[in-house]
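Researcher: I'd like a structural prediction for the single chain below. Treat it as a standalone chain; there are no partners to consider.
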Amino acid sequence: MSEAVLLKARGLGVTLSGRVVLKDVSLVLSAGHLVALVGPNGAGKTTLLRSLAGLIPSEGEIEIGGQSLSALPLRERAKRFGYLPQGHVVHWPLPARDIVALGRYPHGATDPARLSPKDTDAVQRAMQAVDVIQFSERRVTELSGGERSRVALARVLAVEAPVILADEPTASLDPRHQIEVMKNLRATADNGVLVIVVTHDLGLAARFADHVLVLREGRLVSQGAPMVALSEQVMADVFRIRAYRAEYQREAVIVPWADL
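Model: Treating it as a single chain, here is the predicted structure.
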């Protein structure tokens, strides 16, 4: 990883309803990287995302940009993290553009109908990035599940935060838009943002991420470049599978192939 360290966690632990969900997780992540967070169901991936953003109580220390997360006011935290929750659902029949404009709320834009030129530009860029400009005036409740997912991602991009936390952003998308979303997140990382993506698709992780974190039963058991973090031993021990490995157009290819 580069020297531009942006996010640190030391001894991170989370207990929910008396159950230990995360145990002694420590990591150092840098700006300009796309990090894939992978692991079996129930490994603690969503809990780790939420704890990094300060959305749930945790033990240990978290630093963002050299500052303690616990010392930052809520508004400032909202500027530092763009968070896309799993299965994001919108119940309000608002135009898609207004939903995306909610991403500017931490910057003081409380009325989507009265955006500053800077806020308007941020919303436009975010909607272009995930190909939802054509839905600007359509009510988000009239869109398909995949279209709503892309609008939700645009809202996160509109925050223009230094860290983006996306929990399974490709889960409900067709293959074309899965690739497009990951390309856009990759481009966002290449522009200096730290992007952390929870995914069950090890192929997308291998292709687009430059760093992979592997969780098992609340512990960080492997990390590094995709082919290192997702070694044959890790695939066997953590996922109980074998995988086909290759390289295509200078990109890593991992295809889960057989169970053990």
